[in-house]
Write a structure and sequence with these properties.
Helix content: 25-40%
Number of strands: 3
Number of domains: 2
Distance between the termini: 31 Å
Strand content: 5-15%
CATH topology of the largest domain: Rossmann fold
Largest sheet: 3 strands, parallel
CATH superfamily of the largest domain: HAD superfamily/HAD-like
Strand order of the largest sheet: 1-2-3
CATH architecture of the largest domain: 3-Layer(aba) Sandwich
Length: 130
């Protein structure tokens, strides 16, 4: 049904709330509706890729430290909440607190939750630069 689809998800702020200073990543509860929708697409054959900038600021972009420290915490968290994925890519550049990601195939989390695949495709086609 969705075998030819790939979804690339950010983790923090998309699959779960952004961690506050008084919280631990292990204790963050994912957004239930997001997890359910991801499971639906995964069960239908879609490929799920996680692309995260978690701790890129904390470790000054050092991917070795992220692989040694952040990766195992995230993997355990994904297993705990039974969040399906096919790939995880660490080291997504972090735009800072006042920067943005600009991409021609981007949809907002709220759009992912409420729109069909056809509607998502229309959103990205409509919003491309001409």
């Amino acid at each position: 049904m969705y075998e030819d689809l790939t979804f690339v998800f950010d983790v923090d702020g998309t699959l779960c709330p952004i961690k506050r200073d008084d919280e631990r990543y292990e204790d963050i509860v994912p957004y239930k509706e997001m997890v359910e929708k991801i499971r639906e697409y995964k069960e239908g054959g879609a490929k799920i890729v996680l692309l995260t900038s978690r701790n890129m600021n904390s470790y000054n972009g050092n991917i070795g430290l992220i692989n040694a420290n952040t990766a195992k915490v995230l993997l355990n968290w994904l297993d705990k909440w039974e969040i399906p994925y096919d790939e995880i890519i660490y080291g997504k550049p972090w735009p800072g607190h006042h920067g943005f990601y600009v991409d021609d195939r981007t949809v907002r989390p709220s759009e992912f939750l409420t729109k069909s695949v056809q509607e998502l495709d229309e959103i990205v086609r409509r919003d491309r630069c001409r």
